Automatic annotation (TrEMBL):
<protein>
    <recommendedName>
        <fullName>Secreted protein</fullName>
    </recommendedName>
</protein>
Length: 64
């Protein structure tokens, strides 16, 4: 009987540890998602700026 209770307690502790790790993974995945979204916005802004700069450079080249 003692070993059965030890086994149940050990499995409960194991599940609690897995739950803590699952929460940490979830939090890190959300953080990564926010960083990816922010990076995508930065890339989009940089692409727009590059497009505006290339149009301006093309106009300058034509005037030469």
């Amino acid at each position: 009987m003692f070993w059965a209770m030890v086994a149940v307690a050990a499995s409960s502790v194991g599940l609690a540890v897995l739950a803590v790790f699952a929460v940490q993974v979830f939090v890190q995945a959300r953080r990564l998602g926010r960083q990816v979204a922010e990076s995508a916005q930065r890339i989009s802004r940089a692409a727009e700026e590059l497009e505006r700069a290339s149009v301006s450079a093309a106009r300058s080249a034509r005037s030469l």
